[in-house]
Amino acid sequence: MRVESTVAPDFWVRRNVLVTGCTGILGSWLTIRLIELGARVVGLIRDEVPHSNLWSNPAGRRVMGVRGDLVDFECLLRVLNEYEVDTVFHLAAQTIVPIANNSPLSTFESNVRGTWNLLEAVRLTPGVRATVVASSDKAYGPSDELPYLETHRLEGGTPYDVSKSCADLICRSYHEHWGLPVCVSRCGNIFGGGDLNWNRLVPGTIRSCHYGAPIEIRSDGTLLRDYIYVKDVVESYLAIAFAMDRPEVRGEAFNVSNEQPRSVLEVAEGICARMGRSFEPVVLDRARGEIRAQYLDSTKVRKLTGWQGAWSIEDALDETIAWYRRFFDEDEGGPPGLRRGGRVDR
Question: Which of 104, 156, 284, 334 is the most buried (most CB within 10 A)?
Fold first, then answer.
């Protein structure tokens, strides 16, 4: 199943694009898609990720990789100028919530300082016409009013949530004060092949099913979340960037969701059913400080960019499971110890 892009077919041809976080789940699929569309992609890479989905795809050989860190302002400025970057997709961040909350200083360094460094470098590089920054539904913090609308206040409380609220507000300030062409995308839980963070629900459950390991749920399993397939998210980023020539789009934040929230247990049970595994989870109920329910309204992004989610969660899970089965068979599960299974951290 392939979504029909809302972007003009030749829009990305020979366009110079910077993707930070290009080896992550979203960054790898976005980079692959941009290369398919004819873009010249520069990837900012801090750490080696040998099993990244990007490197297992032939498109990875066409990425112009730059070793660098978001906290290095001079590096960012050099990359934007030397590669004559036209469009920036800023995805690099600490994205694992428990790690972020246990290591707040490094989280604020990458998620907050990294964002203002990049935006300042963009401000000083007149050739950049569009910047799309990855935020999260976590930026909103807890709310009794659901689904979240873009008009909700940003009131993150934990270190991870606060880092997303801050980065989001920094983007707004750069647009309102300097007119910087920047938009923010707020997604829920992105899933798909290429996510090697095994403490996340989808890859963790798939791995446990594949190797016959216990399926342990860190929360009580009732947490309600948006789950959206990575390929739908990729198309939303492309649609937002394409639409940024219009004044009603520049400077805006957009919720991206298929608007079908599900509980942790529902998603885990669906994965087990598709993999022929009986569903007997070990519910640890150890999660503390979790927001009970978070899900988004995506009317705005559909109205202003024409984006439409194309993947049902069932079809997306089937394709995701197939990706991981190939990964486990071909790469033998990656680094040592990966086969042992473990907790599903949701």
Answer: 156
